[in-house]
Structure formats: structure tokens, C-alpha cells
Amino acid sequence: MIPVDLPPVPGEAFAGYLLRICERMPLRPRTLYRYLGLCPSGHTLPYLPLFLQPPALGRVMDALDLDEPDVRALFIESFAAIDLSMLRRPRSAAPHRDAQRAQWLFMGGTRVCPACVNEGRPWMNYWQLAWAFGCQWHGTLLTDACTRCGRRPDLVVRRAARTNIATGRACQCGARWSELPTGRQLTATELELQSVLLDALRGGELSLWGRPVAGATYLASAQALCALYAAATAPIDGLWSRRPLLTPPPRAAQLLAAVTAGAPVLQAPTVLDATDAFDALVAPVSGWGEARIWDHVPSHSPVAPIAWRWFHERGRASAQLSRIYRDVFTLVHLEPDAVPTLADVDWLPERWRHAQHPELPMRSATLGLAVARLAGARTWAEAGELIGLESAYAPRVVRHTLRTLGGDSEFELNEAAFAYARALTRQSGRVALRPRLPATSARDLGDFGRRAAVPLPT
Ligand SMILES: [Zn+2]
Ligand SMILES: [Zn+2]
Prior knowledge:
By secondary structure, the protein is mainly α. The chain has 19 helices and 2 strands. The protein folds into 3 domains: 1-187, no CATH class; 204-316, no CATH class; 336-453, no CATH class. The chain has helices spanning 14-24, 29-35, 56-64, 68-72, 85-88, 95-103, 114-118, 188-201, 215-237, 252-266, 271-281, 290-296, 304-315, 323-327, 360-374, 380-387, 394-405, 409-426, 445-453, and strands at 205-208, 211-214.
């Protein structure tokens, strides 16, 4: 055990905490890393700011006399909405890239609030997130690079760094963090945006277009909107990258600008309002084709239904339609009768359709309900009425299905509903249109199985 009584501060980042210990001992950072087993065979552990796996985890717990939750709290894994399971698996095809595309994990270093460092506050864990732009303490924009050498602060001791390394006090060029210019004061609205994002990161439930969603879903929406904004404005202000969905904005100010631009869509109370806000967001690129929009809003994204709806509204003489009419059945141009009670099993997400699974009919009904939502039903109950399921029962069917399948089932449902709705819209030959079942009550769902088993006419 290291003979120093220096507990981590709540919200502190692991790398900064280690440097604080080194300073107190004093000890060379490399020595401490070696002692803690953080650089077996000379390489610093991969993904160090994200999580710590055994055996290093146990070694750090013993050496620093900390409980497991205290150690885990120092890593990005402590943000409940962040899913690192892809990276924990043994290396497969391209987990790094997939994980990054799914949620912007890697920023390469950290942001910093010079005023916080100056006051002796710890380096915060959330500064390492791509979603961080504001200091919660000072209400200022975070700083993302050393003004003398231009390097992004990075407190993790890397093997490749043979010469000086950055410390909690100074950049590797020697410039002191506390002497960097402090970012501008943020407005109340901007600070609120940062709190909402942090809430989502901590796994809180947020509201998206009138529906409660998990923090991860909210962040995925924000990511797609930021990417769209970046792509739409790149010719104008040279924003970050050619692949904004893969690469988070490198500068805090860029992130703030993108999040601010996407906020009206995220905060819209209904899907309809969100579509209007979406229209404003993509106005600079209204000439874009469908394919380019889908480059930036992947079909599994929660924003996809909004983008899809926007496409259709833009292409038709929507001005002539009353708002009430637009509210229903515009998204996928489906007639109410076209949505089957039991969706074709072939369109269920792959994981959902084990042959002969007793819950297959329930899952089919869930997909049918989701399509009805895309077609404009504002609640699951309304969707139920639309497809002939008793309205009180419909929300329970969905809840049950999502709960029993767990994992990414919400995303999978979203994606499947989207694909199925498109197919139904086009009446493509791949879709078997099922006849509508008569209004069904909870007791009748058992019958679904038998009905669904009847082969479809070809
Ligand atoms: Zn600060
Ligand atoms: Zn520097």
C-alpha cells in the first residue's frame, strides 16, 4: 500500500488523481504507473481514461486502499449512459471505431478549466468527455489546448512520451495550466445545456419529443444532430471534420455551437415541432439528397424518424394540408389500414425472431405499434387503437417486449420500425401485408400465436 492518505475528490479523473499522489509523495509518475501495474510490458494500458480491468483494478484498489466503486468512479465508465461493453470484449474486428461511432468516446486528452486548476481543484473526470464544454464551477467555457504549444492537455502517462510529460500543474512545454486564459462566461441557457448533457451521461431519464427516453438515447440524438450541423455548416465556418459522426468536435466552442444549433430539435415538445426545428437546422443544405442526410443520421439513430418525416414534408405541398392532417400519417405516408396488427416477422430485429419463440406474436405486435408511432400516433395507446389493439393494453405489450429483450432493444425496435414502415410505404414486394385483426383484448393475445402461425398467402 502507498503510505499516503489522499482520497480522491468526487468527480475527479484517475490520471489527475495519480499525479496528485505523485506530487504529495513525491514520486515519479512513471514509477507509480509501474507500481500500480498500469504499464505491463512497458505499454500503458489501452483505454485508461475509460475503465480499468482486472488485474490492474485489484492492484490499484490494494495499493491506494480504495474500494472498487471508488476506483471505478474515477473513470469514464462511471457515467451510466456510456456503454463500454464493446471495448471490454477481446479485440474483434473494429471495436474501437464501432464504439466511437456509436457514442463519441475518444477525444485524445482532456479539457481543462484554468481557474479550477489555479484554485487547486482536481482535474475532473467529465472534462475528458467529448460532451464537456463548460466548467460547472465557474460557468466558463473549458479550455482545450495549451496556448503556448497547442497541445491538448493529457495527463495519462504514455509510454511514447520519452521526454517531459504533462503534470497536473503544467503542460509538457512548461506552460502552467493555471495561467492559460480562462474561457468566456457562459450564458444561463448554455450552462443549462451542459447540465442536461451531464444528466443524460449519468443515465438520467430525459424527455424527447414528449416521450421519456434513456440518457443514452438522448445523447445519440444529440450526436446525430451535432454531426448534421457540422456537415451542414462545414463549408461556411470550416467546422471540425469530414466524418463528424465518428469524430467529436475537438474544441469546446465547436461542441457548444453544435449542441446549441441542435437544441431546438432536442427540446421540441412533439415530433411535429422537432421536424420544424430540424428543417431550420438543415436549411443551409436544403439541396442535399437523401443519401447525404443518411450519411449523418444513421437509420438506427433516434433522430431518423424526424429526418424521414422532414424529407417527406419537404417534398410535398404540405402547405396545402392542414396541420391536423399533417400530425397523423405523414411521416411514412401510411394509410391507417396499411399498418398491420402483427408486423411481418421477417422485419423483426434479428435477435428478436428466434423461430417458434412463444413471444413472437407479442414482438410482432410491438413492431406494429412502433410503425403506428412513426405514422403519427402520439402515444402507444393511440398506436394501439390504430392497429386494432386495445389501447390500454398496447403500452404494456411494448414495455414487456423491451424489458424482456433488454440491451439495445429500444434502438433495434426503432430501426426495425423505420425499415418496415419504409417498405410498407413503398408497398414493395418484400412486404407481406397482413389483414387487420379484430380489436383484441389482453386475454386474446394468446390467440395471436395461432393466428400468426397461419402461413401467409403468397
Ligand atoms: Zn472552473
Ligand atoms: Zn504547452
